[in-house]
Amino acid sequence: MNRPVTDGDSRLKADRRGLAYGRTTIVRELSLALPDGRVTAIVGPNGCGKSTLLAGLARLHPPSGGGVVVDGRDIRDLPTREVARRIALLPQHTVAPEGLTVAELIRFGRHPHQGLMRQWSAEDERVLAESLAAADIEALADRPLNALSGGQRQRAWIAMAIAQQTPLLFLDEPTSALDLGHQLEVFELIRALAASGKTVVMVVHDLVSACRFADHMVAMLDGDVVAEGPPAEVVTPALVRRLYGIECTLIADPVTGSPMLANPHRPTGGA
């Protein structure tokens, strides 16, 4: 069952939001209120609508119904530049021109704040330096992106989103294709951004990582939100079975207390 939009201090709310490609419904009517200054993880099996929901919340996909409210205003009523000043979206697959340096990439994050009457300024230079520092990549500023490790490159892209200076940051599978060490680097950066006041919404493939690094979880299946809330309350053996078709025992992480899956296996006779 979808939980209704609740009153409170959420900067972003979706009310009966639906998304479709042509006549194919990808995300059904759902309602969400994302907690401010926290990390929300959207989880679920492949093809359930996670990335489509994220793009729809950022106004990249037109809705088939309902709407999204940002800071009390319908996102459809906001000029494109204004949306870009409120929401930064980093897609799963990113492409940059050959030879582009880290600093040059981050400069793109300042575009929503520039125009015909406002070019690169001392303020932009300050934000560039702060973004490099926030992602801990000051030493890499003049390095080409294609010379970086996977984790360094992903931190550079996130630094570009930081430079956009939006209160809302959307990340689509930010640790995709990264090894364990680089995954931890990126997740720790995400936690630091939330601690600084940003509201972060990320699509996460790994349920255990979502439990460990997110404050709030949205579980999706076949275009519907089937559970929402703190990971320790949302994730149950029944939910894991429903989402992924596997049986497991849940144990608490001895350090963080977040849910961990023990002995995951397919039910006898298959899912």
Fold and architecture overview:
The protein is of the alpha/beta class and 271 residues long. The protein is 31% helix and 28% strand. It has 9 helices and 12 strands. The strands form 3 sheets. A 6-stranded mixed sheet has the order 6-7-8-3-9-10, with helices on both faces. The chain is globular and about 60 Å long.
Give me the number of helical elements.
9
Mean pLDDT: 87
Level of helix content? 25-40%
What is the molecular shape?
Answer: globular
- In what order do the strands lie side by side in the largest sheet? 6-7-8-3-9-10
SSE order, one letter for each helix or strand: EEEHEEHEHHHEHEHEEHHEE
Beta strand count: 12
Quick one: biggest sheet? 6 strands, mixed
**What structural class do the secondary elements suggest?**
alpha/beta
State the low-pLDDT regions, or none.
1-8
Radius of gyration: 19 Å
Strand content: 25-35%
Distance between the first and last residues' Cα: 22 Å
Annotation keywords:
271 residues; alpha/beta; 6-stranded mixed sheet; disordered N terminus
List the helices and strands and how they pair.
Layout: E1 12-21, E2 24-34, E3 39-43, H1 50-57, E4 63-70, E5 73-74, H2 80-86, E6 87-90, H3 102-107, H4 122-134, H5 150-163, E7 168-172, H6 180-195, E8 199-203, H7 207-213, E9 216-221, E10 224-229, H8 231-234, H9 237-244, E11 247-252, E12 259-265
Parallel strand pairs: 3-8, 3-9, 6-7, 7-8
Antiparallel strand pairs: 1-2, 1-4, 4-5, 9-10, 11-12
Helix pairs in contact: 4-5, 5-6
